[in-house]
Task: structure prediction
Amino acid sequence: MSKPAYFRDVARAHAALSTLHPMLLSVEKPVPLKIGLDADLIAAYPTLSRTLCRRMLRWLTTRTAYLEICREGAQRLGLEGPAGEVSARDAIYARSLVLGRRAKLGRAA
Result:
């Protein structure tokens, strides 16, 4: 699959699902997502391919804005509401990615 097709398909999947779950899949106001949300989405929407669902979630969860809100103890959300908290390990990993990106761009933490 070419990059333009890949991004187009991810954008379409996000547009369709974010209209159904605007708070959960927001780009403007991201929230920590439930671990295993892909399985919940696929179960709720059987016509959604597993590959496309995972690509869309990867696109959302690797955005700097998403990583910045993944602080230890932050409430994760799933289709049914609260679904655990961000662990210390996940928070440290997210922070390391953000710091790495900033260092690459020559910005301060």
